[in-house]
Amino acid sequence: MLDFLIASVQLDPIAIIKTGSYLGIALIVFAESGLLVGIFFPGDSLLFAAGLLSAAGFLALGPLIFFVVAAAIIGDSVGYWFGAHVGTGFFQRKDSRFFKQEYLKRTERFFQKYGGRAVILARFAPVVRTLAPVLAGIGSMTYKRFLSYNVVGGLLWGAGMILLGYSLGSIIPDSERYILPLSLVIIVISFLPILTSVMHEKNRANGVLSDNLNNEI
């Protein structure tokens, strides 16, 4: 248990899997989906690495997918409940180590752009993944509607990331030796939508500033 806690604090996907097995993986997925303290947990790389290790025989594929999908759905439901009952007051707090107002604003814009589909799409966006169910609870989305998006998103993300790792592990000999570099690639890819969004917002802000300066001139 202590080894698992150390691995979790160090955000080491491979160590989390080897020390925590199915339950440990499920706990990390649950925390990232439903608890704000899990906002920086390595969900994508963890599931991808779990899929690779499953292909190598370290984990059974069926139970792995079951525990992960269940944890993702339950975690998002807890996040929704938190938003519905506590969220409004909580998000008025100042920035801290685990929470920044910018994360909230970014997630709000995500909802404004995609509507209810944001619950599904947020699964594939780190940080936004943790805050999306909370904002859904704060907003006007009913739990019945949220649950339908939640289940679809949990299945697509949880099973999808695991199967991606499993598929690569099945065709790459000794794939477990390349878990670290392959997981880093997954992390970079998972952050691309956020980086693209940030760059787009900066360009839009610069464009507005430029227009204002031209008008003043």
Automatic annotation (TrEMBL):
<keyword id="KW-1003">Cell membrane</keyword>
<dbReference type="GO" id="GO:0005886">
    <property type="term" value="C:plasma membrane"/>
</dbReference>
<feature type="transmembrane region" description="Helical">
    <location>
        <begin position="21"/>
        <end position="41"/>
    </location>
</feature>
<feature type="transmembrane region" description="Helical">
    <location>
        <begin position="47"/>
        <end position="74"/>
    </location>
</feature>
<feature type="domain" description="VTT">
    <location>
        <begin position="41"/>
        <end position="166"/>
    </location>
</feature>
<comment type="similarity">
    <text>Belongs to the DedA family.</text>
</comment>
<dbReference type="Pfam" id="PF09335">
    <property type="entry name" value="VTT_dom"/>
</dbReference>
<protein>
    <recommendedName>
        <fullName>VTT domain-containing protein</fullName>
    </recommendedName>
</protein>
<feature type="transmembrane region" description="Helical">
    <location>
        <begin position="146"/>
        <end position="166"/>
    </location>
</feature>
<keyword id="KW-0812">Transmembrane</keyword>
<dbReference type="InterPro" id="IPR032818">
    <property type="entry name" value="DedA-like"/>
</dbReference>
<feature type="transmembrane region" description="Helical">
    <location>
        <begin position="178"/>
        <end position="195"/>
    </location>
</feature>
<keyword id="KW-1133">Transmembrane helix</keyword>
<keyword id="KW-0472">Membrane</keyword>
<dbReference type="InterPro" id="IPR032816">
    <property type="entry name" value="VTT_dom"/>
</dbReference>
